[in-house]
Amino acid sequence: MILQQRSALIVEDNHDFSDIFQRLLAPWKLEIETATSLSSALEITSRRSFDLYTIDLNLADGDCEELLSRLAARGEPTASRCILVTSFPLIATAYTAFPIVSKAQISSLGPHLLRILGEPLEVAIQSSGATP
Predict the structure, then answer these.
(1) Segments of the chain with pLDDT less than 50
(2) What long-range pairs does 63-70 form, CB within 8 A, spacing at least 24?
(3) Are strands 62-63 and 58-59 parallel, antiparallel or unpaired?
(4) Residue 47 — left, alpha, or beta (φ > 0 → left; ψ -120 to 50 → alpha)?
(5) DSSP 8-state code for residue 8
(6) What are the boundaries of each domain within the chain?
(7) DSSP secondary structure of 50-98
(8) Which contiguous run of DSSP H or E holds residue 41?
(9) Are the C-beta atoms of 78 and 55 separated by less than 8 Å?
(10) What is the pLDDT of residues 97-122, one digit of tens each?
(11) CA 132, CA 125: separation in Å to the nearest integer?
(12) Cβ contact 25:50 at 8 Å
């Protein structure tokens, strides 16, 4: 059995945090695209869907509200596929339906990744005997 490659979109205007997210996602061997602005994220998501979205709540050209609205209007199960990331805890209270990860405690991303993606690819392959 061949496992289908899954994908992630990282929407983050801080290059260092985008790099951290990519490193954290490496064990899942995802096809990763990045967007550094709301406008680029909207353009990317108009073309395709992703298995995982990590979205910075506050971007230079707006907040994540428009992106979440467009994904939801298209039928994406946003609350089950999106992880919102923020440096501003007070803003996070407006998005109670979503898992919110503080950039100050980025290690708390792990449980959400396991819930959305399951075990990393190497673990899934070893468990199933499948080939990548």
Answers:
(1) 1, 124-128
(2) 63/38, 63/91, 64/11, 64/38, 64/95, 66/38, 66/42, 67/11, 67/38, 67/41, 67/42, 68/98, 70/42, 70/45, 70/46
(3) antiparallel
(4) alpha
(5) E
(6) 7-128
(7) -SEEEEESEETTEETHHHHHHHHHTT--HHHHEEEEES-HHHHTT-TTS
(8) helix 38-47
(9) no
(10) 788 888 888 888 888 999 999 988 66
(11) 7
(12) no
Structural domain 7-128, CATH architecture: 3-Layer(aba) Sandwich (3.40)
- Residue 10 forms beta bridges with which residues? 34, 54
Residue with tokens 């499948």: 130
For 83, left (φ over 0), alpha (ψ -120 to 50), or beta? beta
Q: Token pair for residue 4?
A: 């289908």
